[in-house]
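Section 5: illustrative case.
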């Protein structure tokens, strides 16, 4: 018996390819998406209400990148490097798993049906095919999916609140989870612009005001690849049936919102993220969690946080990320 589909699967249009063909033929066409089941406004706002709180910061990051590189394609090739082959992705990932002593625990798979470029579910790391991982960014992807999500998950599994967050009165942990992961995905980059977090934040805000075709036109300012524009517009408009009307799936604002949330917490705690690895909890619940945590479990940390020297380097990198992005 297959397990029930989660929201991220349900909100993926089942007629995406047919609507794509219509849209690419006529850029003024607004796709009419179909889904496995009816989706509500509550579903679209599961990760928060669409906001403009950080529009100024997001727009400034986009402006800096555009001024410096001229186009997204040049930015990606210059800062993140060339796209890697499946074999090279597997090789780099294997080394990362061995470095973290989890090569016997984590399984890696490649799928043409994956929604995200890379995602971690349980102990399975999935890369979407065709490959979209880049040579200078792959380490950051692994820091994001494994070094953050996976390690917080395995620690969480040994805590009494595992599967019972509501009973413990804990807040949703999405902002802390994704904010920390986004920051960690930029630790290895020479120019750590938070391009995707900023772009998606702005895009969700605009999608909530514009139709699909208008959103695509807006996105031309930042994204010069037609295929990527389509995918991005689908990503923030998914969940909507008639995309000629304003409306957005708010999830992608959680990344920049989370970054701002986590940076504030790190500033107040000497830029030491290790306590946040106690489990999949929100930063504001840390003290409550520490008081109820499993005292016999030794918190597992990723390799980039295991020594005093690595922690010091981490603190310097986070401050550099903050400065480069004007945050």
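Designed sequence:
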């Amino acid at each position: 018996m297959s397990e029930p589909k989660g929201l991220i699967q349900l909100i993926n249009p089942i007629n995406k390819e047919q609507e794509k063909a219509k849209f690419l033929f006529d850029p003024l066409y607004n796709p009419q998406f179909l889904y496995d089941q009816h989706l509500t406004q509550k579903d679209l706002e599961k990760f928060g209400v669409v906001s403009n709180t950080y529009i100024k910061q997001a727009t400034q990051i986009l402006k800096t990148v555009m001024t410096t590189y001229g186009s997204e394609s040049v930015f990606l090739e210059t800062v993140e490097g060339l796209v890697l082959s499946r074999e090279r992705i597997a090789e780099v990932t294997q080394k990362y798993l061995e470095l973290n002593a989890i090569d016997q625990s984590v399984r890696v798979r490649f799928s043409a049906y994956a929604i995200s470029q890379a995602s971690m579910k349980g102990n399975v790391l999935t890369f979407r095919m065709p490959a979209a991982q880049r040579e200078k960014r792959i380490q950051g992807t692994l820091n994001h999916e494994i070094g953050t999500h996976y390690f917080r998950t395995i620690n969480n599994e040994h805590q009494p609140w595992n599967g019972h967050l509501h009973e413990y009165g804990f807040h949703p942990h999405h902002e802390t989870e994704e904010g920390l992961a986004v920051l960690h995905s930029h630790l290895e980059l020479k120019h750590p612009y938070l391009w995707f977090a900023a772009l998606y934040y702005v895009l969700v805000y605009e999608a909530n005001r514009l139709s699909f075709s208008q959103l695509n036109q807006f996105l031309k300012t930042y994204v010069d690849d037609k295929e990527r524009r389509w995918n991005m517009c689908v990503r923030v408009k998914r969940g909507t049936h008639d995309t000629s009307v304003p409306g957005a799936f708010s999830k992608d604002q959680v990344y920049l919102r989370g970054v701002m949330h986590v940076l504030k917490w790190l500033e107040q705690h000497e830029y030491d993220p290790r306590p946040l690895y106690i489990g999949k909890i929100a930063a504001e619940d840390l003290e409550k969690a520490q008081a109820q945590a499993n005292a016999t479990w030794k918190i597992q940390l990723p390799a980039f946080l295991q020594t005093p020297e690595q922690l010091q380097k981490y603190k310097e990198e986070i401050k550099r990320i903050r400065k480069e992005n004007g945050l």
